[in-house]
Amino acid sequence: MSPVDSVGRSRRGVAAAALTALFLPLTAVTPAHAALVNTYTNPGNFTFTVPAGTTAVTVHVVGAGGGGGGSGWGFFPVPGPGGGGGGGGANATCTLAVTAGAVLKIAVGAGGAGGGPREGVYQAKAGAYGGSSSITIGTTVRANGGGGQGGQGSLGDNTGGVGGNGSSSASCSGTVVTTTPGANGGTGGNGVLSNGGGPGGAAGSTVPAECAAGTGRGGNGANGGVFNGFTGDVGSNGCVVLRY
Q1: Of 209, 152, 159, 150, nearest in space to 182 by CA
Q2: Which of 23, 77, 153, 183 has the highest CB neighbour count under 10 A?
Q3: CB 59 within 8 A of CB 96
């Protein structure tokens, strides 16, 4: 091989390497498609139409918390017993296979109302159940997180209300499924040693960061009064998150 051929090949090799170096950074900095996120935190019914090019949606549903139980009164100066805390909503997540144009019907559960105070000799009222959060395609429920049970009202002048059960109704018909029940609410104080209402149970873990703080938590039971009872706290609303 002549010196000329050697130099020519060397120069061609340097030129090729330079071209490769020029285009490599362009490939390296090309951004990946960032996931889009839709978050639904207000109670009610909504729809989402799957956009073109989307074949999978990761869904996350959290049920609403039950309302706290109402309280009664005691004998002066001792306050009455507290109401039970509401149970937390269940939590479910999975990835659903979808087709472009499909409509997801979304329901976000409302927190259960707090129970009213004792009236006369009767037991204070229990809190209401929290609403379920769900996703339906066609007529089939594909994801569901149930709402927590309301806390019981206090009984008489020395028996605290029992906390509501956290919901265990959670399902998701896709892949990479995770379901977690809500926590039970706490029992109210008996009015002798404590008049505090029971704390509301937390929603099943892990609630998405896009949801409001305290999503799916049960309402606290009402504190017992000296001369009258009180109404329990409202449970927290549920939440639905879509990633695609």
Answers
A1: 150
A2: 153
A3: yes
Same domain, yes or no: 39 and 84: yes
Please tell me the distance from the alpha carbon of residue 27 to that of residue 192, in angstroms, as a whole number.
72
Place of tokens 């139409």: 49
User: How many structural domains compose the chain?
Assistant: 2
Task: Please give the pLDDT value at position 6.
Answer: 43
Q: Is the pLDDT of residue 154 over 60?
A: yes
State how beta strands 239-243 and 44-49 pair.
unpaired
Residues 201-218: pLDDT tens digits? Answer: 999 999 999 999 999 999
- Does one domain contain both 159 and 119? yes
pLDDT for 230 equals 98
- The model's pTM: 0.85
Range of 91's domain?
34-244
Maximum alpha-carbon separation in the chain:
114
Distance between CA atoms of residues 232 and 209, nearest Å: 27
Two tokens, residue 46: 């909504």
Please give the average per-residue pLDDT across 87-114, as a whole number: 98
